[in-house]
Amino acid sequence: MIATAWRVTGVGFSLLVVLTAGLLYGTDPAQTSFMNSPVGDLTIGFGVRTDDLTVLLLAVVGVIATCVQVYSLGYLHQRPASYHALVTLFTAAMVTVVIADSLFLLLIGWEVMGACSYLLIGHYWERRDARSGAVKAFLMTRLADVGFLFGIFVLGVGAGTFRISELDPAQISPGVLTTGTLLLLVGVVGKSAQVPLQTWLPDAMPGPSPVSALIHAATMVAAGVFLIARLYDVFSASDTIMTVLAIVASVTMLFSALCAMAAVEVKRVLAWSTVSQLAIMFSGLSLGTADGRHAALFHLVTHAAFKGLLFLCAGVLLHQVGSAAFVVLRRYTRRGRLRKALPVTFATMTVGLAALAGVPGFAGFFSKDTVVEAAWHHARDGSVVGWIVLVSVCVTVVLTAFYCMRLWLWVFFRSPALAGALGAFEDDDPMADLEEPDTSKLRDAPWIMLAPLVLLAVASIGLGYADGVQLNWVLALVTTVLALLGALPAYSLWSRGADPRPVVLEREFGVDTAYHGLFVVPVRWFARLAVGGDQDVIGAYVRAAGRAGTLASQGFRRLQTGNVQTYLTAAVVGVVALAVVAGVISS
User: Which PANTHER family match (predicted)?
Assistant: First the structure.
């Protein structure tokens, strides 16, 4: 009964967010403040605002959250009450971030999202990887949020206000502006899993697939892009910050795309893809122009549709087949059984991957090209940042097309060069001698799970035409050729039954191992040192004091003999001793 109530509440709240976005569409921008308290020369309080950006993000969050809640009705049956309650709170926290006109109100939503993500990633707490992934996400994002908190204070005190709508970069000294925005950027990098705090997001995949869809598509990781877009005048006023953002975004998009090329699990490929696509959005914002901001937000909207779709499709594979990893799916891909047994999932996942790869006609093609065009215009004016962004995005287009094609072919098709298992695992395949599994009972997911897939698939196509973008068709042709250059090697490798994964890519450049050596090992060593000091030093003093008291009490107990003659003798000896001491002192 409780679970049903929370399911209804979750779906209803998500629909309410969509309805709110519809009602606010076209209204004049407005701000409202409440609970204001003067503290010296500052006023600390809360405020909300409505404008075009608020409406846009509310619509994205509401639609994705509704799809996730409806999908979860058929997907998740383990502890559903707590799950739907946390998803609803997670959505409410993102809504708080979106409508906030106060840095403190935004911080509340920001932190509540972090807490909810920890609980949702660790929903299957019986699994060790889920527990470790949740703790890793919590620690890395909380570490970054320390900088975020200090950034709020630096900017607020420097500007004389904590109201976002009243922050005027012209009234903030350049040093304070750069310091404050840099500290905020630390929080953004952590929340959106950008280099060097990118490793928590792929390790969060043991959580339920609908949670992954919500985190990757519309809430937590997208909050960083939204924050910079909301404070764009403040961030773009510092050339240093724009340069730092461009470098971080360029390194991240290439690093994560290379990791996605070698990932084996479907959800892990999609996770690294999210990191890369967020970096493309940040690269558009780093241009510091209105076109760059528009391109980044356009890509944020389209990415929400096709990435939410892809994670929900991965959830169907997990739900129906038993695993979303190539290693297990290969039993079904030997004869292309999955695309025949799961036709709706195959069709919708094809749409999602096409949008992600930037295939012409799909939403990702239009939004990605707006970023490329904005970077080209900026680079043509002689901007170094523009050239960095342009080259990075173009190379990422090639890499993205490669891992999308690789994922699509290996999951749904049987390589003509293989008679059995996947080529990369053929020699050590533990199932190579097994007969083909019986797929007669393998069916597509129930329609309560497929309906959100169809809706998001339509959005993954239609959103590209909703913005009315006028593309530079020369640049569009260039990016299409680049995508083909990435897809063709993936097809060639698949057709030859080869799936080579260089060790450095398979190990994701050894970043996790390096972090373990640099941070985890020293922290554990200091923890053991602290425990040893507590037990062997401080504890020794405590134990010695207790032992001394025990020994003293035992000694005094022995003096209590009950013999009056003994007591009188002791008293006489004491008086004589005192007299002798007094005589010595007086002489």
Answer: NADH-UBIQUINONE OXIDOREDUCTASE CHAIN 5
